[in-house]
Design goal:
By secondary structure, this protein is an alpha/beta fold. The protein has one domain (4-203): Alpha-Beta Barrel (TIM Barrel). The chain is 27% helix and 22% strand. The chain is built from 7 helices and 10 strands. The strands form 2 sheets. It has an 8-stranded parallel β-barrel with strand order 1-2-3-4-5-6-7-8, surrounded by 5 helices. A two-stranded antiparallel sheet has the order 9-10. β7, α6 (165-172) and β8 form a beta-alpha-beta unit. The termini are close together. The structure holds the ligand O=C(O)c1ccccc1N[C@@H]1O[C@H](COP(=O)(O)O)[C@@H](O)[C@H]1O. Ligand LGQLAAA5 binds next to β2, β6 and β8. Residues 5-199 form the N-(5'phosphoribosyl) anthranilate isomerase (PRAI) domain. One of its GO terms (molecular function) is phosphoribosylanthranilate isomerase activity. This is N-(5'-phosphoribosyl)anthranilate isomerase. One of its GO terms (biological process) is L-tryptophan biosynthetic process.
Length: 205
């Protein structure tokens, strides 16, 4: 099964180019200033302007001001948006860009019903729920909570690593996987070896 890979939390050009070299399909940039992976619009747009073709930059926001979102996305027509807060469907759709909405899954959630709330999303990202932390937690959730058939492509996130990514893909069969902390050397800095192992693990099936 060909699974696409997004490497999230890119903060510098060297890591971006390294991830592309290993076959990343998408790179995530975090515009949330409480994250240790937070980048400025200028830094991110400078990196995006130097990316090779066929790699999608993803701008991650957590309940951000409209002005910040507009500042980022006007920097490049290539941006896809990841909404990782409690944004409504109409807020997400307002920017007229392809977007994915993150859902933080916990037991008892009706995942199909939550997905159905975002008919304009290109994909839905499923992440672990942790109280008080919007994402990048490094925690895995119970993948058996994900129904076999959903109305949108699924991007699986939350605590993925080079060690568990193949098992995750075989069990969940997502459209794509997304990783941040599991391929880091230190907060905000990616490990060449871990990125290589993660992508080859995700794409070897
Ligand atoms: O990466 C962050 O710092 C971050 C901050 C706020 C919201 C989301 C964030 N990252 C996203 O969280 C998931 C899971 O990350 P991890 O692999 O468990 O570290 C992923 O979708 C990141 O894009």
């Amino acid at each position: 099964m060909n699974c696409r890979v997004k490497i999230c939390g890119i903060t510098n050009l060297d890591d971006a180019i390294m991830a592309c070299r290993h076959g990343a399909d998408a790179l995530g940039f975090v515009f949330y200033n409480k994250s240790p992976r937070s980048v400025t619009p200028d830094v991110a747009n400078s990196i995006v302007s130097q990316l090779p073709p066929f790699v999608t930059p993803v701008a991650l926001f957590v309940d951000a001001d409209e002005s910040l979102i507009q500042t980022v996305i006007t920097g490049s027509p290539r941006w896809v948006i990841q909404f990782h807060g409690s944004e409504s469907e109409s807020q997400c759709a307002a920017y007229q860009r392809p977007y994915m909405k993150a859902l933080r899954i916990q037991s008892g959630d009706d995942v199909a019903a939550l997905v159905a709330e975002y008919p304009t999303a290109s994909a839905m990202l499923l992440d672990a729920y942790k109280a008080g932390v919007p994402g990048g937690t490094g925690e895995v959730f119970d993948w058996s909570l994900i129904p076999a058939r959903l109305s949108k492509p699924i991007v699986l996130a939350g605590g993925l690593t080079p060690q568990n990514v193949r098992q995750a893909i075989e069990q969940v069969k997502p459209y794509a996987v997304d990783v941040s902390g599991g391929v880091e050397l230190s907060k905000g800095i990616k490990s060449d070896l871990k990125v290589q192992e993660f992508i080859s693990g995700a794409k070897c099936g």
